[in-house]
Amino acid sequence: MAFISSLISNLGNKLQTNLFELWGGAPTTVVMRYSNSLLDKYTKKRYHQWLNSKISNLQMPSHEEEKSDPEDADQKYRSATNFLREFTRDKKKYSTIYYDNVTYGFARNLLAIRCFGLVVAIISMIINGYFILLLLQDEVSIDKNILMGNLFGIGSGFVSIVFMLTFLLIVNNEFVKQRAFRYAKSLFEVCELN
Q1: Calpha distance 118→166 (Å, rounded)
Q2: Phi/psi of residue 102, nearest 5 degrees
Q3: Most buried among 59, 134, 137, 154, by the most CB within 10 A?
């Protein structure tokens, strides 16, 4: 299980790089940009002031500085994010941040194995359908074992359908993006708490 978990995490990390490119950067960087409206400019100003007071040798960029050198501004936002990740390591004190990060990681990893999940769900549906058909075609009078077999087969077939629909309709880029940006907002909200 540890090996599979590590493998899936690695796939998720590879996917994350592609997602960040698609989204225009890491969500923690994107939300701090003046060009992004997820946080209003007054909240960003408070966050910048708090970060300036906590991180020595780092001044958060002004709106003009971000426009003139966006790469340097992004590096400052990444540096502030690195600081906040270490600052909020206490899972009990910053439980919301921790859970939002876990939720994002789970969603990202789920998207990374989406194709595998779909294949497993479809194969399971086919196998369940086959055995249900075999049981239904049996001409023997319905006894308790056949009835229970049908119920378990129908139940597991239903579960396979639910998993297939979940992977098809729910687990997608937007599913992960919502959780990623929720984590980014949670991480920076610590600037309001301390």
Answers
A1: 9
A2: -65, -45
A3: 154
Q: Which pLDDT belongs to residue 147? A: 55
Asked if 78 and 26 touch (Cβ cutoff 8 Å), the reply is: yes
Please answer whether residues 111 and 173 qualify as being in contact, where contact means their C-beta atoms are separated by less than 8 angstroms: yes
Please report the pLDDT score of residue 157 as a whole number: 82
Please tell me the predicted confidence (pLDDT) of residue 133. Answer: 75
pLDDT digits (tens, 9 = 90+) for 164-194: 999 999 999 999 999 999 999 999 999 998 6
Closest among 194, 188, 148 to 29, alpha carbons compared = 188
Q: Is 80 exposed, middle or buried (0-12, 13-18, 19+ CB in 10 A)?
A: buried
In residues, how long is the chain? Answer: 194
Which residues 6+ apart lie within 8 Å of 73 measured at CB?
33, 61, 65, 66
Are the CB atoms for 58 and 51 separated by under 8 Å? yes
Structure tokens at 106: 């789970």
Q: Which parts of the chain register pLDDT below 50?
A: none
Query: What string of DSSP letters covers the chain?
Result: -HHHHHHHHHHHHHHHHHHHHHHTS-HHHHTTSTT--SS-HHHHHHHHHHHHHHSTT--PPPHHHHHH-HHHHHHHHHHHHHHHHHHT--TTTTHHHHHHHHHHHHHHHHHHTHHHHHHHHHHHHHHHHHHHHHHHH--S---HHHHHHHHHHHHHHHHHHHHHHIIIIISSHHHHHHHHHHHHHHHHHHHHH-
